[in-house]
Amino acid sequence: MTDAEMIDCPESGRQLERLRAIMHRLRAPGGCPWDAEQTHESLVSNLIEEAYEAVDAIRSGDQTHLCEELGDVLLQVVFHAELAEEAGRFNLDDIARGISDKLVRRHPHVFGSSVADGPDAVLTQWDAIKRAEKGEVGEKPFLHGVGKGLPALPRAAKLQKKAAKVGFDWPQETGVIAKIREELQELEAAVDAQDIEAVSEELGDLMFSAVNLARFRGADPEVLMARANAKFEDRFHAMERLLAAKGLSLADATADQMEEAWDEAKRAEK
């Protein structure tokens, strides 16, 4: 079947092939001007945004929305594969072959004779195989390569989690809370001293400690932050509605009026 025929193909089991044909047509002469000018670099923000929107769909529990957002993520993979194929570097088959081979190699307890009794054993084995594949022989810094491509918040949790594996951790939650208080005091001192660089450093330390408390309690800091964002957004919208009911816009309202409406919105939640 030609690309032109494949674009309208309704057959189940051939839709990935159809997507590749559509992407090829969009990039071909006479296709879409926007798609034609994209590069790996120009698509980075799209890839990140689509991944986060898929995460949001997972958290919402909306399966229809999740299916759509996963499609958008898949499009990014196919788009990058098309760009690479045009340049003669690799294609979608190479991507699929690479990840398939990796999964087989790193699951010898499934596809070979190795034994892994639980999730922790699987992760330890995975890490050892990964290090061997990358030629990391001899001593390497223990935190070498941990989550290099992750955003700062989840990477902080991952660094802390790995450090905890060798006992570098608080024995009790009270130690984490005490550390947060310590970092807050150091931040306040930096603010009082009007030391801009110290404020930035201490604020980072405070955030790192807060992530540590989330990890210590088994919570995902990214999820907690998403909930806090949603709560702020909901309250702000409620505040805006309350002000509008009094004939006030956000631009017209004073700080005191906004604070009063904020407190009212907060009380309404409870």
UniProtKB/TrEMBL annotation:
<dbReference type="GO" id="GO:0006950">
    <property type="term" value="P:response to stress"/>
</dbReference>
<comment type="similarity">
    <text>Belongs to the nucleoside triphosphate pyrophosphohydrolase family.</text>
</comment>
<keyword id="KW-0378">Hydrolase</keyword>
<dbReference type="GO" id="GO:0047693">
    <property type="term" value="F:ATP diphosphatase activity"/>
</dbReference>
<dbReference type="GO" id="GO:0046061">
    <property type="term" value="P:dATP catabolic process"/>
</dbReference>
<dbReference type="GO" id="GO:0006203">
    <property type="term" value="P:dGTP catabolic process"/>
</dbReference>
<dbReference type="InterPro" id="IPR048015">
    <property type="entry name" value="NTP-PPase_MazG-like_N"/>
</dbReference>
<feature type="domain" description="NTP pyrophosphohydrolase MazG-like">
    <location>
        <begin position="38"/>
        <end position="111"/>
    </location>
</feature>
<dbReference type="InterPro" id="IPR011551">
    <property type="entry name" value="NTP_PyrPHydrolase_MazG"/>
</dbReference>
<dbReference type="InterPro" id="IPR048011">
    <property type="entry name" value="NTP-PPase_MazG-like_C"/>
</dbReference>
<dbReference type="InterPro" id="IPR004518">
    <property type="entry name" value="MazG-like_dom"/>
</dbReference>
<protein>
    <recommendedName>
        <fullName>Nucleoside triphosphate pyrophosphohydrolase</fullName>
        <ecNumber>3.6.1.8</ecNumber>
    </recommendedName>
</protein>
<dbReference type="GO" id="GO:0046047">
    <property type="term" value="P:TTP catabolic process"/>
</dbReference>
<dbReference type="GO" id="GO:0046052">
    <property type="term" value="P:UTP catabolic process"/>
</dbReference>
<dbReference type="Pfam" id="PF03819">
    <property type="entry name" value="MazG"/>
</dbReference>
<dbReference type="GO" id="GO:0046081">
    <property type="term" value="P:dUTP catabolic process"/>
</dbReference>
<feature type="domain" description="NTP pyrophosphohydrolase MazG-like">
    <location>
        <begin position="176"/>
        <end position="235"/>
    </location>
</feature>
<dbReference type="GO" id="GO:0046076">
    <property type="term" value="P:dTTP catabolic process"/>
</dbReference>
